[in-house]
Amino acid sequence: MVNIVVELSKYLMIIMIAIYTFECFAVFNFSDEHTKRSIMRRQNVLMFMIHFIAFLVMYLQTEEKKMIGFYAMQVVLFLAIILLYTKVYPKVSRLVVNNMCMLMSIGFIMITRLSYNKAVKQLVIVAGSVALSLLVPIIIRKVKVLSEWRKFYAAAGVVLLGVVLVLGQVTGGAMLGFSIAGINIQPSELVKLIFVFFVAASLKKDTSFRNVVITTVIAAGHVLILVISKDLGAALIIFAVYLVMLYVATRQPLYVAAGLGAGSVASVAAYYLFSHVRVRVVVWKDPFAVYDSGGYQMAQSLMAIGTGSWFGMGLFQGAADKIPVGDTDFIFSSIAEELGLIFALCLILICVSVYVMFLNIAMQLHDRFYKLVALGLGTCYIFQSFLNIGGVINFIPSTGVTLPLVSYGGSSLLSTVLMFATIQGLYILREDEEEDIERKKEQQLRSRRSGSRTSEPSGRKRAPEAKKASAARKSAGAKKAPSAGRAEAAKGRRASDKRTSGGERPQTSRKTRS
């Protein structure tokens, strides 16, 4: 019976996530708010159903009652996220909230399947990150001087990365972060957000060559510190984000060409300078040829994806726990093996939907600073997702970055949740701008209508007055006409008197003479 439930659960979850993914893009075709809300509610229902079926299967497989309690805590968390965001911020983007919760739920499912203890830690990290993120939209909306803190952003980014050089611990050949009171902190995850704000503040008004050179030097300093720390994944993300933001701000293809050229030279230099980079390139070429000397991880990943095929093996039916770092860097392989390639492809499309929403917000913002921030955050998110999934499927060499909101990790999860909260703040700003525009239009229409109404009564009042004036003129003309006739008659009499007095005789008719 359990096997039947496990087998049916695969297809049910695939169907539901396919419908969810379709509605992520279908919602853009509707302008009616009522229709959009109904789509958002259906997405929530689908998410909770996928979540329920997955944990039901894991409970039937393990028969551990703690699964029930843990599932209930996650449901409460997701309900709190949805209600808090929608009630505290009524103008929030429901699609961004839904996608954030869906990606988190997929992560919880796979992390719970691989390690229950890590899943509990992930739950605590998510709760704390969401609580902190609720303050971000308020800051974005109320603090009007964020675009003036360019020097602060530059200094904060360099200092945080410099701390890693001093206190950093080497993990997997790279110096990624340090520990405080048992808590692992990876500053490069937060520096990515700060760096976006720095570039936006620097290029918001001044795109002259001098300012571009200064900004590029500071950006190169960020990348150089990350390269020295051997955190090449974060260095590549910051490099790509800067190129995109620079091109959008300046519209100069030459800058992009120069940046790509410099990046190519740096990649070749990194290949010869760092041994672990050479190993990853060799593994990328043929992981099975170097199976025992570095290719084991990639080979397991590819075999897991091939084993899962289109519909997956089912939860606890595969060997996802055999994949090295299957809950962090290679969690996409774990998902593809047990939930199927169709499910994994839908996950990719959900990430693309998030990026499309980020771009949509960026294009509709009027403030140049916030427009660049939205663009930079969107580029950061989608490029990190590309690096993770591309490395897992051996499309590109592995870079060691996590899949945002899905992989296990504290700093990565916190920075991504803050990124989504920042986008929500920008979305609220966009809604405020649209309301201001509509309000101004309504005021103009009202002023025009009030002006036309005031002109009509005055015209009506002037009409009787004009009639009275014309009647008065007519009566005055009638009185002047007889007096003018009498004056002309008097002039005629005076003229005849003059002729008589001058000796002129009046002519008599011939009849009188005869």
Helix content: over 70%
Structure class: mainly alpha
- Rounded to the nearest angstrom, the radius of gyration is 40 Å
Sheet of most strands: 3 strands, antiparallel
Shape: globular
Mean pLDDT: 85
Q: Topology as H/E string? A: HHHHHHHEEEHHHHHHHHHHH
Strand content: under 5%
Low-pLDDT runs of 5+ residues are 479-485, 495-514
Q: Widest sheet: strand order?
A: 1-2-3
Supply the number of helical segments. Answer: 18
Distance between the termini: 157 Å
User: How many DSSP E strands?
Assistant: 3
Biased composition (Low complexity): 472-487
Keywords: Cell shape, Membrane, Transmembrane, Transmembrane helix
Main location: membrane
Region (Disordered): 438-514
Explain this structure to me?
This protein has 514 residues and is mostly helical. Strands 1-2-3 form a three-stranded antiparallel sheet, covered by helices on one side. The chain is globular and about 80 Å long.
In short:
It is a multi-pass membrane protein. This is FtsW/RodA/SpoVE family cell cycle protein. This protein is mostly helical and 514 residues long.
